Structure prediction request, 247 residues.
Amino acid sequence: MKRQNRTNNSRMTRETLRRKHLPFYKKKRFFIPVIFLIIIIIGIFAIWTSKPSKDTHSTQPSHKIEKVKPKKKTTKKKTTKAKKTNPAQKVKKENPAKQVTKEPEKKADTSNQIKNAGSYDNLTYDTDWYTFKISNEVKLIKDANGDAALLIKYNYTNKTQTNQVPQKVQANGIMLKQDGQQLNPTTATGDNATLVNSSNNGIVQPGKSFDGALLVKVNSTTSEVTIYFKNIQTNDWLDSTQPLKLD
Prediction:
């Protein structure tokens, strides 16, 4: 029995010695922590791999929300812009109407503008409406009553767009004075009556000319007679005059 115990003890000591001299990676103590370490690494890897998937799922709703917000903002901006442009459109509609009403007035004004309101030079009285060229043939005659009268012949040109009577135009634009008094028209006799009457009653068409005459009664056969011409724009008499000596 004692021998058996001794042999057993010797075997145990050998076994223990053998185990002590084993490499560290063959010992049981080495495998246990290695296994735990592997398990921990696997767990960490599993957690690490699961995080991105959660992040992607979590970020996807945020992207969807961001896409929805701009759409709502853009629709609001469009509606506000449309409301703001409405007054501008009204304004645009009103402006052409004003221009249309003003344009005819401007055209009318330009057409009625007078370039030559009245000028006299070398026996020619000229305006935008008419022209009188006074003849050198100015003479004293007797009227229908036998009184002294002054006959002045002229050539009249109608520059307007309507028919005109020479005597009415002459009476409005030409005035004769003697000794500060205005001379009045009188009637003629003989051949002079035909010329004067045609001037008083005849009609001259636009752009046409007419040879006529005026006859005024004079108070003196020696005093100078002065012809005055009117400014058709201001209705004032021009500074230019034409004196006529009767002696």
About this structure: Confidence is low (pLDDT under 50) at residues 53-68, 79-100, 106-111. The chain is about 50% helix and 25% strand.
